[in-house]
Fold:
Amino acid sequence: MRVKAILLSTLLLIALISCAQEKKENQKETIVENQKPNIIYILADDMGIGDLGSYGQTIIQTPNLDKMAANGMQFTQHYSGASVCAPSRSTLMTGQHTRHTPIRGNKQFMPNKDGQVPLPANSVTLAEILKEKGYVTGAFGKWGLGFNEGDPNNQGFDEFYGYNCQRLAHRYYPPYLNHNQEIDSLEGNDWTNKVTYAPDKIQEHRLKFIEDNKDKPFFAYISLVLPHAEIISPNDSIFKLFDGKFKETPYTVDNKYTSDYGPDIVLHEYAPVEKPLATYASMITRIDAYVGQIIDKVNELGLAENTIIMFASDNGPSPEGGTNPDFFNSNGKFRGYKRDLYEGGIRAPFIVVWPNKVNEGSVSNHVSAFWDVLPTITEITNAKNPDNIDGISFLPSLLEGKNQKQHEYLYWEFNIKGGRKAIRKGNWKGVWYKMNTKNPSAFELYNLADDVSETNNVADQHPEIVAEFQEILREASTESELFPFNTD
Structure:
């Protein structure tokens, strides 16, 4: 009898645990009903996946980002929208990959004139969707999607403070920033005098936006400019963490940075850097400090329980302007840098914190990309998706529930240096360079399951997969007059 009683008690306990777990999962699945959580999306600029401690960085300190990973979910197979700034942001805002999104490259509106090709007026952005759902929307930092119809205020943002032109964002002590559609002069700054460090000024506006809208649902798009070249840091306590720690080789200006679309469009020279290693390291730690300030502000205002914070980077690390991604192992175990469609150019860090919804210290291997952010947020906020998006919500992965849909494939294109395309389908990754030339490069095929560093091209061993991928890459793109991609 005693054994039977113990057995019954054990079975009852198991049943209770099972019911509790099922109830918890059901709560997670329906937790978004009738809620308007605050949403903070933080985007670093040219920060490699290997620059964060939680992804393997050992030289640079990122305690706040590491704590985010410990308090939330870290994705291991998340991808940026493109391998450079503007198209990556366009995929994020529109939920469309570079087959469809309007902005597919870094292209000036006019040569040697501030501002990039504008996002068309008929684009439906994440900010516009959230604004219709009653959110206050703010963008702070680097925009890079154009003035006029492309201006943040015309694309759903109630407030904008930062750099509209991403060319100007290459300067950390600019003479002005944009506040909505007005100029905010930074007194004392010019191309030689350095008084106001613009990233610090922008950070003040971010924190004020959160403070001012603590009683309303808000969406804060925090598009950092760090650590994009030029690399420069104030001589403050953060810089002093690294000053003198490295054997430095000063970076001197020996060539001009030009547009991706030809040497005839000279944008500027990067500034010389006396201590490039210490400077870059301090810029990564400054990003981490900004993240810490944002989290502290959310906690101070009692908003943490109803606030989602996401962190990512727009593309892989850049080797320009004195940066040294190899020294810091900024691209981790991945091949390639900014502008590459190898994993190092597009594999992105991605961390999500949402207390009591996203499990602490969780890791997701779900394959996702920037164009998935929009449908994920629309599902969270019970908003309607625009037509013709390419994204798939990863909310089931965030809640560690069931029914997570998968992409048939992920797609990237970039019409520079002869044209570049890439595709990921399952564990297979195809890369094709110089596509729109008379002599395209050989098609490359990698099995990421056992070759995530893309060192062993197995195209010759799998002609059927190569043929399938080439057909997709030839047919997948829609024509763009501004960013033509011809394969003649």
